[in-house]
Amino acid sequence: MKETLTIAPAEIDRQLSICDQIRQLLDRRPGQKKAFVDTYGCQQNEADSERLRGYLARMGYEFSDTEEGADLVLLNTCAIREHAEQRVFGNVGALSHTKRRHPEQVICVCGCMARQDHVAKRLKQSFPYVDLVFGPQLLWQFPELLLRKLEKGKRVFETEDVPGSVAEGIPVVRQNNIKAWVSIMYGCNNFCTYCIVPYVRGRERSRRPEDILAEVRELAQAGYKDITLLGQNVNSYGKDLDLGVDFAWLLEQVNDIPGDFVIRFMTSHPKDASERLFDVMAKCEKVAPCLHLPFQSGSSRVLKAMNRRYTRESYLELVRQLRARIPDVVLTSDVIVGFPGETQEEFEETMSLIEEVRYDALFTFVFSPRKGTPAEKLEDPMPKEQKSANFQKLLQRQNEISGEKHKEYVGKTYRCLVDGVGADGRLSARTTGGRLIHLEGDEALIGTWQQAHITGSSTWALFGEIV
Predict the structure, then answer these.
(1) Mean per-residue pLDDT for 203-232?
(2) What percent of the chain has pLDDT over 90?
(3) Could you tell me which CATH number the domain at 291-408 has?
(4) Amino acid 1: pLDDT
(5) What's the pTM?
(6) Which helix or strand (DSSP H or E) is residue 228 part of?
(7) Which of 49, 273, 276, 289 is nearest to 183 (CA)?
(8) What is the pLDDT of residue 90?
(9) Is the peptide bond before 350 cis (omega within 30 degrees of 0)?
(10) Fewest 10 Å CB contacts: which of 3, 158, 189, 262?
């Protein structure tokens, strides 16, 4: 196991000083410099991009919502599924046109994809206009890497396997002033056989509790209403700190911070979820009554092949324990269809688990082999056509269940946070359980708590009016 590298405050100060150097360098060039940051994948990537934007703002960049005309384009990538990788490669390919129109444009690729050797090699050989490539462990060093490119003009590729780091003091530019992501830990120790995350993000490493609490306290004082604690497996928080703290303890501490905000967290691994966690969720008034608890498969044999380290029976017992404490909990999950070796009977076990649990929503995926993971080498006899048919069957049934559960909201009134405007011009809001509500109302209500009376529902959303 590689050690965790704690970045000294003096080193972050040095990176901030480099930001100032870059600012002076850019000031010598005509016009306001613009940066476009494009984020793929999970909420952890969103949180990472907020820190990359923090550095860029310190350098003097303004932010653009398009790559066209941007002086710097940064793609923060995801490697969790093949579709995400192909989408990134397609978008990198399209950047050849903007680079041709704007030769001084600096193109950067970072994030989980960049940490994979085969991806870095392809970027180097097939996309000669990509200027800077680095993995997530070197995010804290972004200013230094960018300065090397700007001063020397040569391409910079930093994709070596380095210890996972924890760096405090990186500036943050958040996407809005209502919702905030707070990373409480990085990396993963679980090594599920299908998952690339431990290889590209490194082993688990927790931030110190005083740093997390200081960040949340600052957000609460600034008026943020929806704060999500992030980790690949938040239930493992604190195990590496030797401080006698765990995630349930951290939730209690965050709950005690003054302010009118809701606390969310993701993701929870079932093998580490506990009755103590559920007790804390039930008693802490700011903790949202919702839980994302990925089960991945309803078959204990498949779960063992996935190295998930729980069984169907132990997962269902967790759900029973949770609902005994929070009867109206909103429960969501992930499921993989067509893991190598899954039989039709084992897929039906997944279907029966969905029937028994009745999730509010599922994130469903057909198995996608990841280069370098054990599952990539497993025999996979089920035809793609059968996997696709199973996927559609699961999707259809879950949509029916989601629609049925949403109908139960109609006629009731819920406290919700108005967080924006939807494509149809109506306000969008979320219940504390995370359910989307479409509302009629003035945009001045964005960022406020309201009481919403639910008048209708669909598979994916609720419809209501402000009381």
Answers:
(1) 97
(2) 90
(3) 3.30.750.200
(4) 42
(5) 0.94
(6) strand 226-230
(7) 49
(8) 94
(9) no
(10) 3
If you search the block for the tokens 């080193």, which residue do you land on? 11
**All residues at 6 or more sequence positions from 6 whose CB lies less than 8 Å from its CB, including other chains:** 165, 166, 167
Task: Name the token pair of 387.
Answer: 């996997």
Nearby residues of 325 by Cβ (< 8 Å), 6 or more positions away? 278, 279, 281, 282
Which residue ranges make up each domain of the chain?
Answer: 5-165, 179-288, 291-408, 413-466
Task: Judge contact between 230 and 47, C-beta under 8 A.
Answer: yes
Q: How far is CA 187 from the centre of its chain?
A: 12
**Residue 309 to residue 337: CA distance in whole angstroms:** 18
Distance CA 30, CA 241 (A): 49
> Would you say 35 and 63 are in contact if contact means Cβ atoms under 8 Å apart?
yes
C-alpha torsion angle, residues 285, 288, 293, 294 (rounded to 10): -160
In 3-state terms, what secondary structure has residue 328?
Answer: coil
Cβ 366 vs Cβ 338: under 8 Å: yes
Indicate whether 381 pLDDT > 60: yes
| Token representation of residue 72 | 């710097």
CATH class of 413-466: mainly beta
Tokens 């609902």 belong to residue: 323
Q: How far apart are CA 36 and CA 110, in angstroms?
A: 13
Strand partners, 416: 431, 450
* Joined tokens for residue 417: 């946070």
Say yes or no: do domains 179-288 and 291-408 share a fold. Answer: yes
Residue 111 DSSP symbol: E
Which tokens is 251 given?
A: 């939730």
CATH number of 5-165: 3.40.50.12160
- 392 token code pair: 């559609």
Q: Which two tokens stand for residue 133?
A: 């490539």
Among residues 293, 259, 256, the alpha carbon closest in space to that of 278 is found at: 293
The class (CATH top level) of 179-288 is alpha beta
Separation between Cα atoms, residue 199 and residue 177, nearest integer Å: 33
Q: Distance between CA 241 and CA 233 in Å, rounded?
A: 15
Amino acid at 337: V
- Cα 254 to Cα 261: distance, rounded to the nearest angstrom: 10
